[in-house]
Amino acid sequence: MIAHRRVSRRNFLKAGVGTGAGLLILPFGLARGAASPNNKLNIAMIGAAGRANSNLKGVATENIVALCDVDEQKLAAAAKKFPDAKTYVDWRKCLDQKDPKIDAVVCSTTDHTHAFINIWAMNRGMHVYCEKPLANSVQEARLVRETYLKNKGKLATQMGTQMHATDNFRRVVELVRSGAIGTPQDVRVWCSRTPKGGSYLPDEGPAPEYLHWDLWCGPMPSHAYNKEYVTGGCLAWNRFWDFGSGQIGDMGSHMMDLAYWAYDLRFPTTCKAEGTPVNTDTCPEWLTAEWDHPANNWRGPVKVYWYDAGKKPGMPSKIFNREELFKGLLFKGDKGFLLADYNYRLVMPTTGDMTHYKSPKPQDLIPPSPGHHEEWIAGCKTGSPTLCNFDYSGAMIEHNLLSLVAYRVGKKLEWDAAKLKATNCPEADQYISKDNQYRPGWKLNG
Question: Cys-Cys crosslink for 210: which of 62, 72, 153, 343, Cβ 3.0 to 4.6 Å?
Answer without folding.
Answer: 72
